[in-house]
Structures are given as C-alpha cells and as structure tokens.
Amino acid sequence: MRIKIDENLPLQIALKLKSFGHDVHTAQDEGLGGCVDPVIWQAAQRDERFLITQDLDFSDARRFAAGTHHGILLIRLRSPSRSTLIERIEEILKNENVSGWAGCFVVATDRKVRVRRP
Hints:
This protein has 3 helices and 6 strands, in the order βαβαββαββ.
C-alpha cells in the first residue's frame, strides 16, 4: 500500500509500516513539515497515497467521504504518546486487512477500528 504519514505521528511508524512491506513517505521526507492541512492532503492525493494522521481536521466523514480519495486512517487515542501510537499502529497492521482500505475512511481508537468503505 502507498502511504503518507502526517507530521503529527512519530517517524518510527514509517519504519514499522515499511517493515510490513508498505511504500511509505512522511510529510518530513517530502519537505512538507509545518505545511497546512490542505497542502498535506493535496500531496497525498496527487501521489495516490493513503493518509495516516491524528489531525481532527481530517475527521469529517462527509467532507472526506469514502470513495472520493485514496484513503484516510485517523488515529484517535485517549493518551497518544509516542509509544502508544506505535503500539496501536503495529496492532492494527497485524490484525486488520489494511491492504483493502484504499479509498476508505478509517477511524482507529484504543479499542476499535471503524472502516467506511466506498
């Protein structure tokens, strides 16, 4: 899967995703650190990448309706420390069929993963 990691997530997540065989770019890799959300979004869509973020600006399921983009995983943890984010992403990769999430709007919490499909 082609993935873009937003700058609000630890860079170690990119390494973890790469170890699972995904093609991963980070906002920092592309010189997009500090850019506004629309720039990150446009870059992800231009490059046909699934965006992983914690940013609530991407939380509107109507604005980012499944099937209208290359996919979003919004991570919403109660205590999003670096270690809990990395652990949760790893757990999701091991237990979910993420390769089937292209074009989906996905929200992951501490206990659930909700997938809205096109």
